[in-house]
Amino acid sequence: MNPTEFSSFLDSISKQPLHVLDASIPLNTYTHLDLSVHNTELNRIDVSVSSALEAYIQNYIKNKQALVGFGGYNEMRNIYQRSTHFKHQNSDNERNIHLGIDLWLAANSSVLTPLDAEIHSFKNNTNYGDYGPTIILKHRIDTVEFYTLYGHLSLASIENLQVGQKFKQGQQIATLGDASVNGDYPPHLHFQIIKDIADYKGDYPGVCSMQSLAFYLSNCPDPNLLLKID
């Protein structure tokens, strides 16, 4: 299945939005949040300090009279410059393009599986600026297998999991972590679709360089094909 066919397949799974957050939160209370290099408002805050970025995000969501901030797929960001985890000696290979969708809301909020699934793997990715606790689910629909990644979770989310453990669509799989455990970010969910996970377990790149962008966009299509937020 080529990338275009895979994207069409994902879009066809459900005509209705699928949920990775509490389904009782209305989609009209979600607001798009731009954390790209083009958002000049970010130049006025120190985005390397999670509390400063959190204050900006909370104020933005409040001013929009919303409950959840969302966005970030294929978005070039400066916020990763604070961490050597994303740097490379060759500036062209610096990882600064986001491959998932971020959903910004309070720590301890519930995280759901959008589809029937089983645990593929899980891990606490502890590099500064990394995912923190992470779960990867495997989905199978007809003959098609693919994966979804959930990053920036609470430590409790991965304490009692087992590889192969099954979950039904809409079942809670985790809760969100705070900056003390989630890679030092304001609380949010990083949700990413992965077509071919190769040999990764409990981790998969969620940020890539411009040089590798074409590959990752083909392997990690827009999560909004499932979520249908806008």
Notes on the protein architecture:
This protein is α+β, with helices and mostly antiparallel strands and 230 residues long. It is built from 4 helices and 13 strands. The strands form 3 sheets. It has an 8-stranded mixed sheet with strand order 1-2-5-12-9-8-7-10, with helices on one face. The longest helix is centred in the first third of the chain and has 14 residues. The protein starts with a helix and ends with a helix. 37% of the residues are buried. The mean pLDDT is 92.
Reconstruct the topology from this structure:
Elements: H1 3-12, E1 30-32, H2 50-63, E2 68-71, E3 75-76, E4 97-98, E5 101-104, E6 110-112, E7 117-125, E8 132-141, E9 144-151, E10 166-167, E11 172-175, E12 188-194, E13 207-208, H3 213-219, H4 224-227
Parallel strand pairs: 1-2
Antiparallel strand pairs: 2-5, 3-4, 4-13, 5-12, 6-11, 7-8, 7-10, 8-9, 9-12
So how many helices? 4
What is the 3D shape? Answer: globular
Strand order of the largest sheet: 1-2-5-12-9-8-7-10
Number of strands: 13
Order of secondary-structure elements:
HEHEEEEEEEEEEEEHH
Question: Key features?
Answer:
230 residues, alpha+beta, eight-stranded mixed beta sheet, three-stranded antiparallel beta sheet, 4 helices, 13 strands
Summarize this entry quickly:
The protein is an alpha+beta fold.
